[in-house]
Amino acid sequence: MTAETPPVKRSAAEKPEKIRCDACPVMCYIAEGRAGACDRYANEGGELVRLDPLTILENNEDVTVVPFLDREWDGDIVTGDEAFITAVGSGTTYPDYKPAPFIVASKAADADMITVVTEGIFSYCGAKVKIDTDRHLGSECAWVRSDGEIIGHVTTSEYGSQMLSLGGVNHLTGGSKKEGRATCAALLALCNNETVQLSIDSGAELEITAGQAPVVNGQREERMRVGCGSATVGMFAAQWKGLVDEVVVVDDHITGVMSEHQAGKVIGWPATGIKIKGRRSTPGRYFQVAEPGTGWGGTDLDDPLEILGPWKPKEAWPGLSLLMVSTTGEHAAYYELDEALEPVRMEMPERLLPSVRRIEENCEPSLASVLFMAGAGGSLRSGVTENPVSLTRSVQSRLTRVTCGGAPVMMWPGGGITFMSDVTQMPKNAFGYVPTPALVAPIEFTMSRADYEALGGHMDYVMPLEDALKGVTGRQSDHRLSGRRAETRKLGAPSPVGREPGK
User: Fold this and answer.
1) 407, part of any domain
2) Same structural domain, 210 and 240
């Protein structure tokens, strides 16, 4: 048996020095072979390396997605004006005075264009989440939690959807460290299209993935409602006439009653003597028939008959037929009045089944939508121009087009550069983080070369698109890229530089 060789101890002079990364305010000292606190940069042989590959977006819709790295790429996968350098994997504009990692010159429709590319560090950011559901998720302003920590709140209900506002600087940096970490982790996962578990105070348990059906209290949502109860009555009035004597569409917001509704009046629907317990708004439209919940039409009702009062004996009659249905068609029941004018549930007649199915058919599939929202401030603008306000004015005047990982954005009017973008339109793993905590998100500014010169851009750092495609980095960058990958433009998304594919 041979003795094990004892490990060789290195002197301090022999140990490789750590290198400092200044890509964010943390300014990590990174040892050889290790990554920094954000897992975005590493020390490879004493050189700072951006670990995620630079993502190049192909503008042609009919191109197969082909990942490529230095050792694999033959230079022919993407060429010239068919490609767009996104900020995913590009590196960060930090500190403020540094030009953006890539300032790329290209041509679009024979016009000379400049695209400024950088990964921005966003503390002032969050996500607006739209959840398609007819179920009550929580009261307006109720706290939304992830891992037990408050990360946002419930906002308004929209037409068939419930909105959440998550993140923002107050949750990221204004509370405890635990709250900040939980907020950052939830936002990062949501924006990278991963599944996140959320809970709403005195409300629902949620499982949210961008672009997929939401799961509410363990139940996957299938459909968002076709409309409110009143709208449903209006849409299907003609289809129900002659098949049933009365229709009530139960809804947490506006419950519709066919015989009283204007749609019924127009087609000559006779009165039935029905009485609804809710607050009457206008003829055939009732508010507050029940409390919000997960039952019929987003109410807390398991039995819809609870919203009915006694029928008027001078107008109602024994044998009167009644259809009660929810705004998604998920709940439906058929009744007939007995001799005492009490509704008795009976099997749904075949004649009414097609109309219930028609409601279901007209309901959109339920989705959870995640919009990343952020305000682009000092570092980003300084990376574009030495006079930051000139970029703001250029964006506001529509001379500069803003994209997020090549995806289109919705710009908010007013001061600053505040935008929202659908995360499902972005390349995979488009978002990162820094432990301050803050999100790291891609952003690109595209404009004509003349406009870039006019706003005081960093013209000395402009490089041809062809060089960027070959893996050349800007001379202002103090790191090298680990690789490059190509991804096709998302179906239906406009070209980032404003050129239609193939033109």
Assistant:
1) yes
2) no
